[in-house]
Amino acid sequence: MPSVMSRIVVPTFLRITRRNRNYVSAAAAREHVRRRSADPASYLPPKRLRGVEVSVAHDRGWPVYTLTPASGISRGGLVYAHGGGWVGEIVNQHWQLAARLAAQLELTVTVPIYPLIPSGTAAEVIPRFAEIIVDSRARYGSTFVAGDSAGGQIALSTALHLRDLAAAPVPRIVLISPALDLSLENPRITDLLPRDPWLGRDGGLVFTELWRGDLPMKHPMVSPLFGDYAGLGPLTVFSGTEDILNPDTRLMVDKARAAGVEVDYHEADGLVHVYPLTPTPEGAAARRTIVETLRAHL
Predict the structure, then answer these.
(1) DSSP character for 37?
(2) pTM of the full structure
(3) Would the pLDDT of 225 be above 80?
């Protein structure tokens, strides 16, 4: 059974704070995009991130942060794509996870601050992430990819794009509650909507329409569920059952396994969207699992 924190405290907090308010209606979503465009949120990392040195470079308009282990030892790289519905900026939980992976695994972690909707689109962002991963390999060696929610879509779409470019497979792709079919047409989503305190379909479709730009909604750069998974590197996937993205995650896991991809799937009954980022016992256990899994592949 989930802990009291996961079963009661976190969902109650999300409902009280109306965390899904920008997802429940198209009008609210459009207004959120307008406000974020007029007054962008800060992407700056916390002043103190334990165990790492932080630097930033500006490349073609993107701030690209590098978290280097304070030990001075780097055993490889990792590129992290943050979530936020393609409209929300990186937040403290993302920075803390990236710093933990850098410090505990002695990895050089790259955190690109990618352009958000309405200016950022999948066709621009995915190829740039692929370039950043290739650059990380050249600088730091074997490079993992990780992402949560919208960042999970970016991570998986980028891995598929790299495969199409005949690049070496990513040695391990970590997906936390990934967005996979941006049409949100899976019929099981309707049943989950009343139970999900974080996401919604009507507003979510506003965000996904802007993110796809000129690409078809089911293009793998937009909706990686529809990619060809043959030749993809191994996956570690986390999903809670109180998440409208869970049904598509199950489909993706089955499809990847059918294509011969190694999948380490962690489904948490009764837990919410991106539960590995939450301050709960289950979140802490998931974060330990990520560290242990990546350590085994160094």
Answers:
(1) H
(2) 0.97
(3) yes
At 162, the amino acid letter reads L
For residue 128, the tally of other CB atoms under 10 A from its CB is 19
- The predicted-structure confidence for 246-267, as pLDDT tens digits, reads as follows 999 999 999 999 999 999 999 9
Q: What is the pLDDT of residue 166?
A: 75
d(CA 120, CA 146): 20
- Neighbouring-strand partners of residue 144: 78
Q: What is the pLDDT of residue 79?
A: 98
User: DSSP assignment, residue 244?
Assistant: T
Task: Tell me how far apart the alpha carbons of residues 68 and 181 are, in angstroms, rounded to a whole number.
Answer: 34
Model confidence at 167: pLDDT above 80 = no
Tell me what pLDDT residue 168 has.
80
Question: Is 101:294 a contact under the CB 8 Å cutoff?
Answer: yes
Instruction: Provide CB contacts within 8 A for 236, sequence distance 6+.
Output: 172, 173, 174, 175, 263, 264, 266, 289, 290, 293
In angstroms, the CA 92 to CA 282 distance is 19
| Domains recognised in the chain with CATH numbers | 4-296 (3.40.50.1820)
Q: Is 171 helix (H, G, I), strand (E, B) or coil?
A: coil
